[in-house]
Amino acid sequence: MLRELLSGSGGIDPSKLADAAGLPNDPASIAAIFGQLQQAMQRAEGEGIDWSLALRQAEQRASTGQRQVEPVEAERLERAFDLAGLWLDEAVDLSALPGTPELLTRRSWAAATMPIWSQLAEPVATSIADSLTRVMSEQAPEELRSMIQGASRMMRGIGGAMFAMQLGQVVGQLSTEVVSGGDVGLPLLEDGRAALLPQNVAEFGDGLDIPTDQVELYLAVRELAHARLFRHARWLRLHLITAITAFAKGIDVDIERLEQLAEGFDPSNTDELRDAVANGALIRPKSPEQEAALGRLETMLALVEGWVDVVTADATGRLPKSDAVAETIRRRRATGGPAESALATLVGLELRPRRLRDAAAMWRTVTDAVGVTGRDALWAHPDLLPTSADLDDPGPLAARLAGGESADEADAEFDKGLEALLRGDLPPADESGTDDAGTDAGDADDDPDDDASPRAS
User: Fold this and answer.
1) Which residue, 162, 174, 305, 373, has fewest beta-carbon neighbours within 10 Å?
2) What is the model's pTM?
3) Cα(427)–Cα(322) distance, rounded to whole angstroms?
4) Residues 115-154: b if buried by 16+ CB within 10 A, e if exposed
């Protein structure tokens, strides 16, 4: 069927299939898609997915309706970045960025972020391809196994190409919705790199009863805060990407649902196929392990976005309309955009964390308790970050931070105790807390310095 379809002799309307897959369905695009799929059929096993297809689709989609940055607009936004950096210095204990913030077109944003998008999407594409090839091999009769093996390789190549093109379309559409490099909460740009999309910033401010310069300044502060955080917490970028890819590897195809769809598939009516693709009906429900991983990931994303919200509010207190801009961002975040919904289906991940308000309230409580320096010190290591329980009730965390030792003091005490243990100055105690002679281990030595032991902070 696939060979007939790609040769143009099949009974399936290719424009309807392209529409069902979320791809352009005009004749020129259809011809280009079929050419790319035919090339994918020839790819050797083990070559992986050709993500250049995603980049070409994204750049093509982003270029539609794109305009270049006007000189006057660029000068105004550069001034906004300069002032935003000064205001942010007063609100955070994180150093300024080494480079100059950038102004990107939609196409340049799509190209700059595609490496991360493809890295996040590859485990999903691989999982789907593995599921399809596995079921083909399992259900094929013995005499057809060798033929099926060749068909499986072809399916993997075609499926990877289709997935890459779908991803490109989604990222291209997303480039028309985002206003900055960190707008979706993920580290899509390199560490230390901040950017605004002037065309989208202007469209964001259209219709708002807020002066343009205030909107631009507020968004510049948010973007710098996001970029500074990921540059300061060097571990955070890899931590998030690893968590997302680990979650994505568990995504699997619902073979029974796929078989039902195939049995009743009407080539002249692809609406059912399009709906199944759009609403994620072909993906199995999340496993308990995936649900747990998703919960941890959502907490981390909420911590990032909540921190950015709090420091942006503090840094923009001088702006008369800062609250109005913040409320617009909250409404925009709550509803999301069509590209975000498509990406959630494609990658299996909602970009907007559900516990954002709880995270922002927690960071505000911590700031009031220990100040800016104490709050930002929690980003030094993942083990220091607040947990989901802290989002439920930040009071104990704030009290512990306000009344306890600093992270440096705790580390120094731990190192001191560990060194003493390695020297043999602290004989190990049994589970009852006494040594072999029945004497309390804490009284074995009257030297108060040797009475210390490593403590969890």
Assistant:
1) 373
2) 0.76
3) 60
4) ebbbebbbbbbbbbbebbbebbeeebeeeeeeebeebbbb
